[in-house]
Task: inverse folding
């Protein structure tokens, strides 16, 4: 079972893409993502990081290697690089990818491969959800 404080930290994180501008907040609709989805005729999306597996901080070089592997793993999708910025200033923003056109199941499988505790998922005209990975 994931620690309640960790779930709260994930929930309060801002998930951001700078170009095109996208701001995702758990529990809110995502009009920025919806616009991208409509343009491409897609319905599902996920925001995934490979940084800091199991929320254990790694050295920058290791996180960069993991991110490159994530980019390779999602190369068949439309992706936009972004980052997750939490409220804890002691925790660096985690480079992440907004993946368009990926099902919740496929996104969860990628999250599992990169040993993540959770990912963010959504679909057209719906609220962003935190998906805990068991």
Result:
């Amino acid at each position: 079972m994931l620690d309640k404080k960790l779930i709260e930290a994930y929930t309060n994180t801002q998930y951001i893409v700078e170009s095109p501008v996208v701001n995702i907040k758990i529990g809110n609709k995502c009009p920025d993502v919806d616009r991208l989805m409509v343009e491409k005729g897609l319905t599902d999306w996920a925001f995934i990081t490979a940084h800091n597996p199991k929320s254990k901080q790694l050295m920058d070089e290791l996180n960069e290697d993991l991110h490159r592997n994530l980019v390779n793993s999602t190369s068949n999708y439309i992706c936009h690089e972004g980052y997750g910025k939490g409220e804890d200033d002691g925790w660096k923003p985690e480079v992440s990818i907004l993946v368009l056109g990926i099902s919740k199941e496929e996104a969860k499988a990628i999250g599992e491969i990169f040993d993540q505790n959770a990912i963010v998922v959504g679909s057209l005209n719906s609220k962003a959800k935190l998906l805990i990975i068991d």
The longest strand covers residues 78-85. The beta strands are 14-17, 22-24, 44-49, 78-85, 94-100, 118-123, 129-132. The chain has a mean pLDDT of 96.
